[in-house]
Design goal:
Number of helices: 12
Helix content: 40-55%
Structural class: alpha/beta
Order of helices and strands: HHHEEHEHEHEEEHEHEHEEEHHHEE
Distance between the termini: 54 Å
Number of domains: 3
Largest sheet: 7 strands, mixed
Amino acid sequence: MTLKQLRYLICIADNGLNISSAAEKLFTSQPGISKQLKYLEAELGMQLFKRKGKSLTSITSAGFEIIERARNILRESENIKNLAGDLSDEEEGKLSIATTHTQARYILPDVIKNFVKKYPKVDLELHQGTSEQIAELVNTHQVDFAMATGATKYFPSLKILPIFNWNRIILAPKNHPITKLPLNLDSLASFPLVTYIFSLTGDSSFKESFQKKGLNPRVVFTARDADIIKTYVRIGMGVGVVASMTFEIGDSKDLAALDASDLFPEVTTWIGFPKDMVLRSYMTKFINMLSPIYNKHLIKKIISCDDQISIDNLISKIDFPVYRFSSKENRVDLV
């Protein structure tokens, strides 16, 4: 049994049991993967997949257990590499991050730019998706870091570190009727709305805020991308509700922005890493670049924490910065 065989096994499972897709992702051949899978099953003396002809149709009960153990083995293999890399003072490797479009577009560019300058030999992978998609990447051990807002219940396997808080703003074409009304949930609900895609579970502080007032707003368009939301606000499809840090100077040319911090609860963006992962020095530096609050000393304490409650207690007295929109100055600041 080899690590390569276990890697092939996991990739087959993560690609819908499609060996061709697995081969493409692993930059190898389909016959090569099929051959190694047969070798592995022969060594174990059992089938890991049910078959119909040459196609794999499902994972056997034994296969599920072996795949889970294989994930743990590969994670420990990566931990050994990480540890060896740090002990030899090598500043090269790979860092994979799963995050939302908002973080990838508005928060991470400057951080990644500075990180690449300091660690030119570290290869970066950036995956974008919804909270559910990010959780899937985490659960299948395809990424090192996850960065998202709220939805922490999807990530029980991670150590989660708050980075900053933010509020929402309202966007509308200039001279739109909403700009002339007192801004509250009642006035907002009287217009068609354009906002982010909702969680598949239905959890949403946006929805809950209206429900508490007995309001049922008409959401006519949703998107993951704040830039797309702005586009459809501009063509008059509805009033936009977006994260405050997505407002840019150029937006003020044709859009009016209104502070909605009194309408919706403040939310927290966080970064997380697997509880069993050994962090390379460049990984801890990335966290520090993202939030200088997390220095080496604090990160070391966090790593030693056994559970999330201990981490939360450790950082409970920290005042994390907030992205605030100033209506007076028509700009967003991190304060």
